[in-house]
Amino acid sequence: MTTTTTPSPVRPRSAAATTVRLGVSRIGYETRLYFRSPDTLFFTFFFPFIMLGIFTAAFSAAGNIGTNPDGTGGVSVGAYYLPGMLAAGMLLSGVQNLAVDIAGEKSDGTLKRLGGTPLSPLSYFMGKIGQVFVTAILQAGLLLLVARVLLNIELPSDPEKWATFAWVFLFGVITSAFLGIALASVPRSGKSATAVVIPVVLVLQFISGVYLQFTALPEWMQNLASVFPLKWMAQGMRSVFLPDSFAAAEQTGSWDLIWVAGALGVWLVVGLVVSRATFRWIRRDA
């Protein structure tokens, strides 16, 4: 007597599982593509390293920044600019990288082709944002390593400081990624994307306390910069890597970490809403 077994029916993969699987797969693809693009690497990944090196070499001869009247104390030039370079790296990895990249994909027909595949917008977003996270973490880690090993910059030893670094970094990267996706809808073509995006990012860096002492700027410029997220990202990073005495040089005389969290949270929501509302596989005017 023989027995027969009925094969179990193959359960179809759920839509959510498929979305996540495709999204994770896109993260690896997008990351590989990122590191194969020399111009992207130069203007987003390595740019903070270059600027930190330039400022350190150019101004170190003037001595420490924030010294006491007797010449003691303060921090080195490299230590002073490190928080700003970390904040700029987050902005470049998210806003500049994604805005230029997605605008180019719209222009060359990549998005149109992807729209005809099983890839959903959510999986596409997961790939882009995941790539930003991977590259931003690598960039920040290497920047801290260079700061400690090559520039001899003392890093915080207080766990609370590193906890602040973690949430400011997390908020900053996610916010920058969503704003990059949203900004990608502005350029009319891939060729014009860099002309539209890079000046915006560069101006924000100059008015947000990345390259210049924030309180040395005119009050109207400080107020303008306070509207945008980079100012708060840089301020949050300064609270981690600079002595507490430097808080007196902030706009309100304190680190205002609650305002940092609030501002980044608002911009995260704005970026999410605008990016989802404006994203299309095919341009409306195509």
UniProtKB/TrEMBL annotation:
One Gene Ontology cellular component: ATP-binding cassette (ABC) transporter complex
InterPro entries: ABC-2_transporter, ABC2_TM, ABC2_TM_bact-type, ABC_2_transport
Family annotation (Pfam families): ABC2_membrane_3
Principal location: membrane
Superkingdom to which the source organism belongs: Bacteria
Protein name (record): ABC transporter permease
GO BP annotation list: response to antibiotic
UniProt GO MF annotations: ABC-type transporter activity
